[in-house]
């Protein structure tokens, strides 16, 4: 699961919300309105990595209609629920192959300082495990150079 998949989930959520609020449906997936909303979705994802809520506002999104909405981290995670569930199997396979229990894991390295999807998946599976998350880009760069 990557950032693009998450952006698409957010985009579909906000498109549906726009349709409900305005009674207008944006039909062209390549339209300027969709691109503008997609940029906002990337920003919302970034905001939610640091705050419990995020807001989106786009002036004249479609046919002159302004769009504003907010999203809580809890709602965000519920939107990602099915996608996260698809990641649980591979995480469980890795644990089985390595003969580890979730309680054996001290830390998880993440490529991103933003929202750690490894954290999300592991905490979704094993809520009792408290992990330390570190950004490993420096260590990886030192290893490869």
Any overview of this molecule?
Residues 131-145 have low confidence and may be disordered. With 145 residues, the chain is an alpha+beta fold. The protein has 2 domains: 3-77, Alpha-Beta Complex (Actin, Chain A, domain 4); 80-144, no CATH class. The longest helix is centred in the first third of the chain and has 20 residues, at 3-22. Helix 1 (3-22) crosses helix 2. The strands form 2 sheets. Strands 1-2 form a two-stranded antiparallel ribbon. Strands 3-4 form a two-stranded parallel ribbon. Strand 3, helix 5 (117-125) and strand 4 form a beta-alpha-beta unit. The protein has 6 helices and 4 strands, in the order ααββααβαβα.
Broad shape: elongated
The H-level CATH homologous superfamily of the largest domain, spelled out, is: ATPase, substrate binding domain, subdomain 4
Alpha carbon gap, first and last residue: 27 Å
Number of domains: 2
Average residue-wise pLDDT: 76
What value does the Rg take, in angstroms? 18 Å
Q: From the helix content, strand content and strand pairing, which structural class follows?
A: alpha+beta
What's the architecture of the largest domain, going by CATH?
A: Alpha-Beta Complex
Biggest β-sheet description:
2 strands, antiparallel
Order of helices and strands: HHEEHHEHEH
In terms of per-residue confidence, which ranges show pLDDT below 50 for 5 or more consecutive residues?
Answer: 131-145
**Within the CATH hierarchy, at the fold level, what is the topology of the largest domain?**
Actin, Chain A, domain 4
As laid out across the biggest beta sheet, the strand order is 1-2
Oligomer: single chain
Tell me the β content. 15-25%
CATH class of the largest domain: Alpha Beta
Number of helices: 6
Q: Fraction of residues in helices?
A: 40-55%
The total count of strands amounts to 4
């Amino acid at each position: 699961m990557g950032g693009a998949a998450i952006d698409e989930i957010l985009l579909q959520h906000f498109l549906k919300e726009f349709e409900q609020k305005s009674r207008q449906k944006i039909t062209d997936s390549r339209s300027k309105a969709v691109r503008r909303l997609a940029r906002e979705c990337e920003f919302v994802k970034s905001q939610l990595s640091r705050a419990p809520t995020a807001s989106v506002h786009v002036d004249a999104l479609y046919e002159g209609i302004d769009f504003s909405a907010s999203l809580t981290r809890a709602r965000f995670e519920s939107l990602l629920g099915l996608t996260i569930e698809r990641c649980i199997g591979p995480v469980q396979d890795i644990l089985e192959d390595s003969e580890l229990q979730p309680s054996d894991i001290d830390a998880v390295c993440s490529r991103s300082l933003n929202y750690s999807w490894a954290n999300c998946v592991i905490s979704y599976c094993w809520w009792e495990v408290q992990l330390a998350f570190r950004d490993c880009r420096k260590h990886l760069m030192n290893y490869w150079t």
